[in-house]
Design a protein that fits this description.
Bound molecules: adenosine-5'-diphosphate, magnesium ion
Family: Belongs to the eukaryotic GSH synthase family.
Strand content: 15-25%
Radius of gyration: 23 Å
Shape: globular
Protein name: Glutathione synthetase
Number of strands: 21
Cofactor: Mg(2+)
Keywords: ATP-binding, Glutathione biosynthesis, Ligase, Magnesium, Metal-binding, Nucleotide-binding
Number of helices: 14
Largest sheet: 7 strands, antiparallel
Structural class: alpha+beta
Number of domains: 2
Catalytic activity: gamma-L-glutamyl-L-cysteine + glycine + ATP = glutathione + ADP + phosphate + H(+)
Length: 543
């Protein structure tokens, strides 16, 4: 295995090489469904009324150099993260406190919590819970000589996307490494790149399949199915389709349907009796009804999906049903940035107070020493991935953070985050003081302040909408995790399945703050692992 890349990696391309690679990559992407629906700014609804057109996902021409040590660190931490978030989701008291701390100024979180309370009153009909998680990281390096480490950007518990496209991106780069790079004027010979195997779609699908089995036999006369709960007008549809096809891949014969969130009440109802089985009647197949075993949500993570009270009714309807939810409301709340902050903020007196992680990981009786040691290691591994995150509430830590956030100089190294998912919600650097001053102090507690991670930039070329963009880029690694557990247990007991399930590398130009591929800022990438941890060519070549 090579541990260093060629000094000129990734090589500069001649004009004709660029032309050829655009041709090769766009056709490979179309042939393999490395695609999205085109943005309306590129193809208008009038031009494509049936939505028949697709376009290649923005993608790097070369896999970006990424330190092996960091990639391994993320992979190793994932099972511990799965266990941690299962345990948080099981800890209603902790989550109730989180919601209280976020406060009434955040209607979205307040409404979500109300859904949980209402179902709890009646009693949950399903105790199994499925998590298809993704933990996102950036590389942090204190000095050029120091070993790089990964620091967590965020942990996703709902609609963790791109598992369907990332394994395809890994496959594209492998194809190019075998067939194209050796032909360049500055050739990269076969075997010079270390490209890890990435089975993200298969791994995530395995979680859905396991939940489908764990649901048991249908209790009604109807066959079981899986529902993908989606947004109207979704552009990232092929990412989801790849996952559907993996769930349906032989030898399994699992019916999978896409249900728009806005159609929940029209197309589903609960069975008669106490079991609250969720029954789904596909509108285009009027003779068929299915009992829904698993609801996999690729929607419902932001206020946009809940335009009125009936949308909240629909979420409640799903939550109280017997279907296994991915995620449940509790797991969704566990994924808030406030939880991430509470986990990352050290106790005010670390000498006398234990880490909050102790509450979720480790021995419940304190007698099993082997388990305690294992827990200590696990907690240490998780803590190594944390960066500084502060509350903005009235606490002592909150007061300190407020001083940083309002200071024109110190705020330059921070990002302010609300309790939202899906990109485009954060406030960066110099925009922070003005933003905070524009709202009542009573609302500040709904935000967290996070130190910006500044990875060593690398160099790459992105193919976006048929054009090549060359320059400095920043990479974000996502590690997928799949976990199925029983909500009635505590501290991560009751786990039926816990797997690390492949990775995502997302890359953006080093001038852009956000990294969402669908939002048009970032692109898909894969890792060319470099040993020793020092990403070659860092920082030197900007175009
Ligand atoms: P969302 O839930 O909207 O995806 P994230 O917390 O993942 O919110 O932030 C969106 C993007 O902003 C990230 O993908 C990353 O590119 C950038 N970002 C967020 N937090 C940090 C940070 N601490 N350091 C550097 N970049 C960050
Ligand atoms: Mg994110």
């Amino acid at each position: 295995m090579p541990s260093t890349l060629p000094a000129n990696y990734p090589p500069d391309l001649t004009a004709s090489e660029s032309e050829r690679l655009v041709e090769v990559v766009k056709d490979w992407a179309a042939a393999h469904g490395l695609s999205v629906r085109p943005p309306a700014t590129v193809v208008s609804a009038e031009t494509d009324p049936v939505g028949i057109l697709s376009t290649a996902v923005p993608v790097t021409i070369f896999p970006s150099p990424f330190p092996q040590i960091c990639y391994d660190q993320g992979k190793v931490a994932q099972k511990a993260y799965n266990e941690l978030y299962a345990a948080i989701s099981q800890d209603e008291e902790f989550l109730a406190q989180i919601v209280k701390n976020i406060g009434d100024s955040d209607d979205f979180i307040t409404e979500l919590w109300k859904v949980h309370l209402k179902v709890k009153e009646e009693g949950y009909a399903q105790h199994l819970s499925l998590g298809l998680f993704r933990s996102d990281y950036m590389v942090h390096q204190t000095t050029p000589e120091a070993d790089p480490q990964i620091k967590q950007v965020e942990f996703n518990t709902i609609a963790s996307s791109f598992g369907g496209l990332s394994y395809q991106t890994s496959a594209l780069h492998k194809y190019l490494a075998i067939n194209e790079y050796a032909l360049l004027e500055q050739p990269i010979s076969q075997g010079q790149l270390t490209l890890p195997t990435n089975l993200s779609a298969r791994g995530l699908a395995a979680g859905i399949k396991q939940a489908f089995i764990a649901y048991g036999h249908s209790a009604t006369p109807h066959p079981k199915c899986v529902i993908f709960l989606v947004q109207d007008g979704e552009r990232n549809v092929y990412d989801q389709r790849h996952l559907e096809y993996e769930v349906q891949a032989p030898p399994s014969t699992i019916p999978v349907f896409r249900l728009p969130f806005s159609q929940i009440k029209q197309q589903t109802h609960l069975a008669e009796g106490d079991g609250r089985q969720l029954l789904f009647s596909p509108p285009q197949l009027p003779k068929h009804t299915f009992e829904v075993a698993v609801v996999y949500m690729r929607s419902g993570y932001g206020p946009g999906d809940y335009p009125d009270a009936s949308a909240w009714e629909a979420r409640y309807h799903i939550e109280r049903s017997a279907a296994i939810k991915c995620p449940s409301v509790l797991t969704q709340v566990a994924g808030t940035k406030k939880v991430q902050q509470v986990l990352a903020t050290p106790p005010s007196d670390p000498m006398s107070e234990p880490s909050i992680l102790r509450r979720f990981i480790g021995s419940d009786d304190g007698r099993n020493t082997r388990r305690i040691h294992h827990a200590d290691d696990t907690i240490a591994a998780l803590q190594r991935t944390f960066t500084n995150i502060y509350p903005l509430d009235n606490s002592t830590a909150g007061q300190k953070a407020r001083a940083i956030a309002l200071d024109e100089d110190r705020c330059q190294s921070y990002v302010l985050k609300p309790q939202r998912e899906g990109g485009g919600n954060n406030i960066y650097r110099s925009a922070i003081p003005g933003f905070l001053k524009s709202m009542p102090e009573a609302h500040w507690g709904a935000y967290i302040l996070m130190e910006l991670i500044t990875p060593p930039p690398v160099h790459n070329t992105i193919l976006r909408l048929g054009k090549l963009e060359q320059g400095g880029v920043i990479c974000e690694l996502g590690i997928y995790g799949t976990c199925l557990w029983d909500q009635r247990e505590k501290q991560g007991h009751g786990i039926v399945m816990n797997e690390q399930s492949g990775y995502l590398l997302r890359t953006k130009g080093d001038k852009s703050e956000e990294g969402g591929v669908a939002a048009g800022f970032g692109c898909m990438d894969s890792c060319a692992l470099v040993g020793g941890g020092h990403a070659k060519n860092s920082g030197e070549r900007h175009v």
